[in-house]
Amino acid sequence: MKTEHHGINQERAVSTLGGWGMLALLLLLLFGGIGLIIHSAIAGSHGEFPLGIFLTAVFLELCSAFITAGFFTLQPNQACVLILFGAYKGTERADGFHWTNPFNKRIKMSLRARNLNGDKLKVNDKTGNPIEIAAVVVWRVQDTAQATFDVQDYDNYVRIQSESAVRHLANTYAYDHGELNEITLRSGVEEVSKALRAELQERLATAGVAVDEARLTHLAYASEIAGVMLRRQQAEAVIAARQKIVHGAVSMVEMALRELAEKQVIQLDEERKAAMVSNLLVVLCSESEVHPVINAGTLYP
After folding, report:
1. Among residues of the chain, what percentage have pLDDT more than 90?
2. Which residues are 79's β-sheet partners?
3. What is the pTM of this model?
């Protein structure tokens, strides 16, 4: 079985004729042909009809009609792909008034930057949690030949490949609970955006498309686990806050014992130190207001 390998098309620049010069030639042929027709009619009314002059006039009019079909205009950041009988002849990128062979098929294409605002997708992240994710992609046509001949519909190609890249990105990173120093979708915004842009550029290079920017516009847990994950985040926030409170309380107790010992305010044995540490930790770590109890006696029976 023979397999055909199709090569990648590359854009070639082509310079078409200026439209204003061809417009002047068109007017010359048009009015020249009209003048000859009038001359033939007048000459025929006075004698023998000048067939040769009349045929010349008809030829000039046909030439003017042929020239008329070759005019086209281009705006800034617009290109025109020229195809003659199925063969690619080149791309005109210069804006203005142009003329080309009327037999050339002309495909105009915008080179301006475009926004693709992707739909919200429900996918699983690296850890298997269902999430909702969406991205915006800023792209533009870079190679008109590839965009025209190497893909069927480059607009649809960009949309489908962008969706596929976003799905793959979500499967590659965890939402927000990765391993130590691991980049996640929520914490590594810049890194994730760069990774998405690089993957999109690789995917869309076949269509001659350049990706200027790619960023996530929506990121959230799927509705079926959003409540559970919210409680998990709240519990983690409480644990983190408790860790800071305990760390601060231990530091304050250590400082208090050190200051008492250095200034010899009171001599404490190990049991009295343990009691003081316990009381200070209760005061410093308690969420409610603490009411101290004054011991008027002694710690020992």
Report:
1. 38
2. 109
3. 0.68
